[in-house]
Amino acid sequence: MLLQNDTCQKIIDRFINILDTPINIMDLAGKIIASTNKSRVGTFHQGAHLCVLSKNELTITKNNQSLYKGCEPGINLPIYYNNEVIGVVGITGNPEEIKDYTLLVKELVELIVVENEQRRSLALKEETKLSFFTQLFNESTPIQEEILQSRAYIVGFNSKGSKRVVFLEIRILAQDLNNEGNSLEKQRLRTKLKSYLKTKLQMNESVIDLYEDELILIINDTSSLYSFLDSIKKELEQHYPIALRFYISEVCTHLKDYAKSYKKTKLLIALYKHKDLHKNILSVIDYKLELMLNSLDQDEKAYYLDTFNALFGESPKDQSYYDLLETIKVYFESNMNGLDTATRLNLHRNTVRYRINKFKDLYQIDVTRPYVCMKVYLAIKLFLE
Question: Vertex 70, ends 68 and 75: CA angle to 5°?
Answer without folding.
Answer: 65
